[in-house]
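Quick one: structure for this chain?
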Amino acid sequence: MTPAARAATIADAPALERRLDALDWEAISRSLDEIGYARTAAVLTPGECAELIALYPREERFRSRIDMARYRFGEGDYKYFAAPLPPVVTTLRARLYPPLATIANRWEAALGSRTRFPSELDGLLARCAAHGQRKPTPLLLHYEAGGYNCLHQDLYGDVAFPLQVTAFLSRRGVDYDGGEFLLVEQRPRAQSRGEAIATEQGELVIFPTRYRPLAGTRGHYRATMRHGVSRVTRGARYTLGIIFHDAK
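Got it. Here's what it folds into:
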């Protein structure tokens, strides 16, 4: 697409779609390759963040709730949205997927994998359904003071898209303190590398679901990635998780 055509497409799209289409995907791709994750400027407005947080008490909008302490996942809770997803979540999931699929397929090729992902989200969801994965996976996560999330991966079946997104809904230093987003990269025959990311309301962090390619002396190899949340020291922290594959 020419720059003029891309600008026209962005101008004709609704507000959230315009913000997503204006993201610098070359910079995002480069950051994912170089450091294993990418951050955006604020994509969601304070109003959109508040709208999502306000859904949390509405049990009819969710298909299940997980108490982290019960399963020793951490301290806090999260809820998986039921279908149909809220419009903001639907837009984020559908609009972010195509450029991420391009990166995912490049990664699979670098690793010598024959797996390739469809260019549109509907194709991925059809593949999930063929493997019995039909439950939506976007979720809202909620932590109070003392809450945290242990390092983990979000895998729900045989089909797993290699990238996912977290959107940060609460205001660091206003609504909560602490609660840094954590990423740990485990490298073969080397010590693990960690990142603690202090995030701002409305921004997105894009990161690997389970591994990313790293260049070695004999080509690329898989570096396993896990993510979590450090302890919240004050207030309440809400985030939106955008996972692209569905669950069984």
